[in-house]
Amino acid sequence: MNIKPALVLSCVTTAVSALLIVAHNLTYVDTSGIITEKMMKKCTDLMGEGEYSIVSDWKEAGYATEKPDSVSKLIKGSNGSLAFEIVADGYNKGGLDLLISMNDDGTVGGIGIVSITETPGLGTNVNDSEFLSRFGGISSDTVIVKKTPSADNEVEAVTGATYSSKGVAAAVNTAINVYAAMGVSE
Asked: What does the pLDDT read at residue 162?
């Protein structure tokens, strides 16, 4: 039995792995505290022109609660506006990255999709301004229905995209409940 080829192969793979780790550490940029260009455009679309910043310490900022795990980022505008970045499950786990702005009265101001990895032609249809606008003004837990809505908190699902529609509604519900827990509109 010749052990030399296995030893050489092990040394080569170890060296390549070490080089990959070094290259990653040298080039990695942490974007968790940065508002990307795409996110800035969504902020402007939802909350108007202004300066935006990420609130990292919610208690220090005067909110009644700490940042829950369900919220990726809280973005505050120079005019006092607030928006939550929430990653929600649709048909795909984590398939919806949404920015949800809130009005001062605790209602949803608007929704922008930052990124979507749902099924093309089906789940991606939730990225329709008409569908997203149906959530505007809602202040209580939203329910997705397959028929014409009969209550203020009901929103009709996008045909063929029920899971994705429910994912958007779940993110909206998270935003409404977290906003209420923050004590902003008191």
From this structure: 93
The whole-angstrom separation of Cα 122 and Cα 45 is 25
- Is 158 inside any structural domain? yes
CA dist 186 and 182 (Å) reads 9
Average pLDDT of span 15-33: 84
Query: Cβ neighbours of residue 180 under 8 Å, at least 6 residues apart?
Result: 106
Beta strands in the chain (DSSP E): 52-54, 73-77, 82-88, 96-102, 108-116, 143-145, 154-156
Domain membership of residue 139 (yes or no) is yes
pTM of the model: 0.80
Question: Which runs of E-coded beta strand occur in 19-81?
Answer: 52-54, 73-77
**Other Cβ atoms within 10 Å of 20 Cβ, number:** 10
106 close to 98: Cβ distance less than 8 angstroms: no
Identify the CA nearest to 153 among candidates 128, 174, 134. 134
The reply to whether 132 falls in a domain is yes
